[in-house]
């Protein structure tokens, strides 16, 4: 079923989620069950899967439950390898900024760190965790309200983000990813 889900729902954007625990230990992990679900107020959501084994809950979810805060960083071609490095299943004591070589920046409205190398960072406050299923492979949907957007200046023109400059990547099935360079336009019908 996992293979069907990740093969059929493509391409998926990637929320590169930075958090810290109650002692200030930093954490970073990618989540591609990710989208926006409200613009007024701005709310994003992503899903943390339930693991099988002794530690079913991912560090990201535990940190968000403990602190009520997180940052969603957008993944570009330039930081794809580092993003992938942070998906290693490591203990909660491991700082994935150090593991990946990415640079932490202090959040302005939240205590969670941001990824300096990411051109778009969304500081979020937890609104709700919806437990979809507690079974292994089940998920917890995490909804966060964006309280501050950081957008690299050169990406913006007339309030719009230029996808050519952003160079976001998306996830396909298995180890496969997509770039966002091949695009086309269609006008909506009136
Ligand atoms: C591109 C990519 C997308 C991923 N998407 C998800 C996802 O949507 N949900 C999930 O639970 N894990 C996903 N993972 C796996 C987590 O990143 C991985 O389990 C990570 O170790 C969790 O870290 P944490 O325990 O520090 O939170 C993804 C991994 C990669 C590389």
Helix and strand arrangement:
Elements: H1 2-8, E1 12-13, E2 15-20, E3 26-31, E4 34-39, E5 42-49, H2 59-67, E6 69-74, H3 80-85, H4 96-100, E7 104-105, E8 114-115, E9 120-131, E10 139-151, E11 156-157, E12 160-161, H5 163-166, E13 169-171, E14 177-179
Antiparallel strand pairs: 1-13, 2-3, 2-6, 4-5, 5-10, 6-9, 7-8, 9-10, 11-12, 13-14
Q: Could you explain the architecture of this structure?
A:
Helices cover 16% and strands 38% of the residues. It is built from 5 helices and 14 strands. Strands 3-2-6-9-10-5-4 form a 7-stranded antiparallel beta sheet, covered by helices on one side. Strands 1-13-14 form a 3-stranded antiparallel beta sheet, with no helix packed on it. A two-stranded antiparallel ribbon has the order 7-8. A hairpin with a 5-residue loop joins strand 13 (169-171) and strand 14 (177-179). The longest helix is centred in the N-terminal third of the chain and has 9 residues, at 59-67. It is globular and about 50 Å long. The site of flavin mononucleotide has 17 residues, from strand 3, strand 5 and helix 2.
CATH architecture designation: Roll
Name of the top-level CATH class: Mainly Beta
* Mean pLDDT over the full residue set: 97
Q: What's the story with the biggest beta sheet?
A: 7 strands, antiparallel
Tally of helical runs: 5
* DSSP E strands, number: 14
Low-confidence stretches: none
- What fraction of residues sit in β-strands? 35-45%
* Adjacency order of strands in the biggest sheet: 3-2-6-9-10-5-4
Assembly classification = single chain
How many discrete structural domains?
1
Order of helices and strands: HEEEEEHEHHEEEEEEHEE
Ligands: flavin mononucleotide
CATH topology: Pnp Oxidase, Chain A
Whole-Å distance between the termini? 39 Å
């Amino acid at each position: 079923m996992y293979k069907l889900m990740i093969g059929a729902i493509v391409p998926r954007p990637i929320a590169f989620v930075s958090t810290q625990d109650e002692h200030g230990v930093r954490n970073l992990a990618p989540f591609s069950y990710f989208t926006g679900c409200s613009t007024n107020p701005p709310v994003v959501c992503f899903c943390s899967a339930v693991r099988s084994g002794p530690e079913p809950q991912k560090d990201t979810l535990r940190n968000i439950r403990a602190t009520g805060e997180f940052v969603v960083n957008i993944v570009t071609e330039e930081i794809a390898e580092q993003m992938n490095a942070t998906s290693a299943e490591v203990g909660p004591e491991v700082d994935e900024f150090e593991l990946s070589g990415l640079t932490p920046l202090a959040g302005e409205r939240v205590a969670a760190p941001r990824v300096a190398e990411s051109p778009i960072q969304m500081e979020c406050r937890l609104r709700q965790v919806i437990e979809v299923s507690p079974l292994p492979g089940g998920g917890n949907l995490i909804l966060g309200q964006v309280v501050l957007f950081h957008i690299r200046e050169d990406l913006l023109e007339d309030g719009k983000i230029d996808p050519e400059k952003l160079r976001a990547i998306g996830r396909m099935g298995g180890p496969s990813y997509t770039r966002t360079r091949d695009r086309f336009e269609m006008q909506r019908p009136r």
